[in-house]
Design a protein that fits this description.
Layout lengths: L1 E7 L2 E7 L8 H9 L9 E6 L6 E7 L9 H15 L5 E6 L2 E8 L5 E5 L22 E7 L2 E11 L3 E6 L8 H9 L9 E9 L2 E8 L3 E3 L3 H13 L6 E6 L2 E7 L6 E6 L1 E7 L3
Parallel strand pairs: 2-3, 4-5, 10-11, 12-14
Antiparallel strand pairs: 1-2, 1-17, 3-4, 5-6, 6-7, 7-16, 8-9, 9-10, 11-12, 12-13, 14-15, 15-16
Bound molecules: the ligand N[C@@H](CCC[C@H](N)C(=O)O)C(=O)O.
The ligand N[C@@H](CCC[C@H](N)C(=O)O)C(=O)O binds next to helix 2 and helix 4.
């Protein structure tokens, strides 16, 4: 199996370009190849496939083998891969994902920056999905217990195609993400589980974010998580509708445009190496 290792701000993927449908045991394969000791090592396995609705289609599998609907960092990597390795005919592309078709622009002289129209965020409680039946889920209390210690947090729910719970904390750099992340990801208020963003707001246009990703664990960056964060902080009046989200692996610029209601994400997509996996 030929593959290419890529990353978006340290959120790393094994990219496989294929003309065929996926192998039957793709979920088991994802677990094997994403393993950082016995496999290649990555946060996700991404298939780049032909599409009859867009320039290219992507399917992604988390490191635990589950298939999420969307992945912002992978969309940028897939677009750059397609532009540099398959067709450089145009710098505006479309990528079909499990959450719809994303418009993408390859930017900069070296193609390293990629801008993506991530579409309209979903804010209605049951559609995110959460078990909260409301038009919006803002500052909703959520209680968890770890090692006998009970804790309440307040999350804002946003779906960018995949579900997110955004929680503001005092000092995100020192926050115990590993302790509370898995409990919140699996809380019954999220019927499909959720990605959990822990954030601290620096100013009206800057937010620090760490993420506990559904099906993966703590990662260095999450594109959909950064989009969900800016939507949540602007809904709560903590930021404006555009700003920089500082992640452990680098920065993403996010704009939630008033005119079309869509969230635009701009950031890096990087090649690491090519390889062949022996059977
Ligand atoms: N890292 C991604 C999100 C990948 C999917 C996520 N783990 C899920 O299960 O929803 C991103 O950059 O958006």
């Amino acid at each position: 199996m030929k593959f290419t290792k890529m990353h978006g701000l340290g959120n790393d993927f094994i990219i496989v370009a294929s003309e065929q449908e996926l192998p039957e045991a793709v979920s088991t394969l994802a677990k094997q190849v994403c393993d950082r000791h016995f496999g290649i090592g990555a946060d996700g396995l991404v298939y780049l496939l032909p599409s009859n609705r867009a320039d290219v289609r992507m399917r992604i599998f988390n490191a635990d083998g589950s298939e999420p609907e969307q992945c912002g960092n992978a969309v940028r990597c897939v677009a750059r891969y397609y532009y540099e390795r398959i067709s450089d005919a145009k710098r505006e592309l479309t990528v079909e994902t499990g959450a719809g078709i994303q418009r993408v622009w390859i930017e900069g002289d070296d193609n390293t920056q990629v801008r993506v129209d991530m579409g309209n965020p979903i804010l209605a409680g049951l559609q995110i999905p959460t078990t909260v039946d409301g038009e919006r889920v803002v500052d909703q209390e959520i209680a968890v217990t770890a090692e006998g210690e009970g804790q309440s947090y307040f999350f804002t729910g946003v779906s960018m195609g995949n579900p997110h719970g955004v929680i503001e904390v005092k000092d995100v750099q020192h926050f115990p993400v590993e302790k509370w992340g898995p409990l919140l990801e699996n809380h019954p208020i999220f019927p499909h589980k959720a990605n959990i963003e822990f954030i601290s707001v620096r100013s009206k246009n800057e937010v620090d974010m760490r993420v506990w990703e559904r099906g993966v664990g703590e990662t260095l960056a999450c594109g959909t998580g950064a989009c969900a964060t800016l939507v949540a902080t602007s809904l709560r009046g903590r930021t404006e509708r555009q700003g920089t989200v500082h992640l452990l692996g680098g920065d993403l610029f996010i704009e939630w445009q008033e005119s079309d209601g869509c969230v635009y994400m701009t950031g890096a997509a990087s090649f690491v190496f090519d390889g062949v996996l022996q059977g």
